[in-house]
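Risk register update: the risk of archive-format incompatibility is retired. Evidence:
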Amino acid sequence: MQTLSIQRFSTSALTCAAAAVLLAACGGGGGGTDTGAGVTTAAGVEASAQGNGTTVVTGGTGSTASPSTGGTATPVTPTPGTSTPGTGTPSTGTPSTGTPSTGTPTQAPASAWSQCATENSTCTFDGTKEVRYGFGDKWATRTATGSIACNNSVFGDPAFGLQKVCQVSGTAPAQQPSTPAVEQPSSGAKPTPFGQNAAAYELTFADEFNSFNTSVWNDHIWYETSNPTKNYTVEDGKLKIWPQRDASGRFFNRTIDTDGKYYQTYGYFEIEAKLPVGKGTWPAFWLFNHIGDRRPEMDVMEAYAGGAAPWGFNDSNGIAHPQAYAPTVWKGPNELVGTRQYDTGMDLSAGFHKYAVKWEPNKQTYYFDGKEVLVLNTTFSDPMYLMLDLWYGSASGTPDNSTPQGKSNSFEVNYIRAWRFK
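Archived output:
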């Protein structure tokens, strides 16, 4: 997800030609013509149109991508048994980045904190400790072992415009939260990955959205505060996020994620969702982590209703509807692994569809309603958390008065599930 502040956030380093090939920047997007020809851009990105989608694979990464020509798979039969929830915390391989503190820990009293570093230096200490970064009453807290860099890349910016410090707690770190319970569908059947061999997987995470569980979900991304204007809810067994102007009159991003609360490495991840309409809308489902300066990112689904065909089309009232979407993978800022614009040939706002990824140690396979749409031979080993969001911009353009507001035009998620490999 390129053009805002994560991988979305780094298009300034790409040429417009390269961004046009990526189909998610510069307001562009190809027409989906099957030319079979490869194009190399100034940024060294190779694009090739294949079938009803465009695949982009970067050179020099050792990764390959290819769309599948297979048909839609049929669902597997659920199998009985009790699932074992999985868990994890971000692991960086170095002591300097720390892991996000989780839930709402009880911090040590002010007298128990001692300054260990100033902004843009390193805090060192013995053992595993809670470290907070900020100033006055504005702090972000991480748990780290041995040392941690005191900067905005690690902690975010809790006290914008102020010179910040790091303080280390003299008490033991807060207890990590328990793994979120697996919420079974109302039918009582154990969910299995759509179109996959059920015997190969064990359910580790499921939210059927019978309620909004704040022990599992945050309602804003880590470097922002939650916008008080309400534009999401859980009702009728669905998570709903809709376009809405806030008190300032602007459309604002809404992110629902498990950062600091649930992580997983490898497995199968799936949602069933219906997408919103309207110029500027940019719904997405992705796996992500922010580890020091690294930003591994797996975008399972991004859609741009307001983009050029086949991204979207206008109905008789001039309202933009989504038709294509893209899975996209980034190893870090400006380090694209691969992407594909997949033209479904359908109005993705008219009904529910399944968007999924099978994440193996050296391979990622992306699915639409059980059909392979992108395969990448690449290695990702960091724990990732789950993200569902409705943002604005990129190839979808800027939302305006033609963009329908309100709950009736929601990014609706029927469920989100994850399985591990047995």
